[in-house]
């Protein structure tokens, strides 16, 4: 614990071995893939923040506009003195749009990137001295528990950024079911969901002219070099992102520019020229489709807010009895 933030380390050193095993399993699969969690070292977190301000990338500014316009309505539905738990807190920018309106008794930021998490929560605690601030370094895509000692009458999870889209629909349902085991009956979930829309808007959002998304995708290979003893040359791969209309998802890949072999943690991984490493999905939903999915997971819809261009939706759900 430091003077501003109560820190809870739920990402112990032994997880590094299991992360390596998970990474190698994906690289050895056909087709090859990695989990989006491997994007988020310190540099990856910084690059993602840079993506969010690119003119083509509508989700962040649209979600923030919805939160700004609907803050009072959200506060009325959520109620005061809750424990506000932000999953994948990153720079904790969006939650600032809620704090004054909700006035929670406690804030908990949860993120896998330890240093980035501590920096952002310390800034938050300094800017809101009345707020009890906690930080939990954890992989929230795996089973976890809320830390002990959180103030507040009831937990309300905040999952912005349409990060739920990084899961397949089946995985998303499983993730939401996991949240129902952490939330009491009546506990809330405020969640951002990207909506199905014109393909041109989606393709542009993940292929920004400045190349920031490409750098973010390729940084995964830099992380493999630094943290997993990988022998790989990032310049031998290129970024690829496109909208898959059949599955209603953006796909991101790293495409090998030649026949090559890389080594990760001593294991040889062969790539043919043009072969892809699938690094991320971002599924898009209709309002009704996401309500149906969350209902199967044990949540009841209470309210939702959409921007005037129908690009993005924020749902407020409560855990059903």
Automatic annotation (TrEMBL):
Keyword field: Methyltransferase, Transferase
Entry EC number(s): 2.1.1.44
Gene Ontology molecular functions: L-histidine N(alpha)-methyltransferase activity
GO biological process: methylation
Domain Histidine-specific methyltransferase SAM-dependent: 21-318
Protein name per the record: L-histidine N(Alpha)-methyltransferase
Species assigned in the record: Billgrantia bachuensis
Gene: egtD
């Amino acid at each position: 614990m430091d003077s501003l933030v109560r820190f809870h380390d739920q990402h112990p050193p032994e997880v590094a071995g299991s992360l390596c095993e998970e990474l190698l399993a994906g690289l050895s699969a056909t087709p090859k893939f990695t989990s989006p969690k491997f994007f988020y070292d310190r540099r990856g977190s910084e690059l993602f923040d840079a993506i969010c301000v690119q003119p083509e990338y509508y989700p962040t500014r649209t979600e923030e506009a919805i939160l700004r316009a609907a803050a009072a309505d959200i506060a009325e539905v959520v109620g005061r003195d809750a424990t506000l738990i932000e999953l994948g807190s990153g720079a904790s920018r969006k939650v600032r749009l809620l704090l004054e309106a909700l006035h929670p008794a406690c804030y908990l930021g949860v993120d896998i990137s330890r240093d980035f998490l501590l920096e952002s929560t310390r800034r938050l605690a300094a800017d809101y001295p009345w707020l009890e601030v906690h930080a939990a370094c954890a992989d929230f895509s795996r089973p976890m528990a809320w830390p002990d000692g959180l103030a507040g009458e009831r937990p309300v999870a905040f999952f912005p950024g349409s990060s739920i889209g990084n899961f397949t629909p089946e995985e998303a349902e499983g993730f939401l079911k996991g949240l129902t085991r952490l939330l009491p009956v009546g506990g809330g979930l405020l969640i951002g969901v990207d909506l199905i829309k014109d393909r041109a808007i989606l393709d542009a959002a993940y292929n920004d002219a400045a190349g920031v998304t490409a750098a973010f995708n390729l940084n995964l290979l830099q992380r493999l070099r630094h943290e997993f003893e990988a022998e790989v040359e990032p310049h031998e791969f290129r970024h690829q992102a496109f909208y898959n209309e059949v599955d209603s998802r953006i796909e991101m890949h790293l495409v090998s520019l030649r026949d090559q072999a890389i080594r990760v943690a001593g294991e040889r991984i062969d790539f043919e020229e043009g072969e892809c490493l699938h690094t991320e999905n971002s599924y898009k939903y209709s309002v009704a489709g996401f309500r149906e999915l969350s209902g199967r997971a044990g949540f009841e819809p209470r309210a939702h807010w959409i921007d005037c261009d129908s690009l993005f939706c924020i749902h407020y759900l409560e855990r059903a009895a």
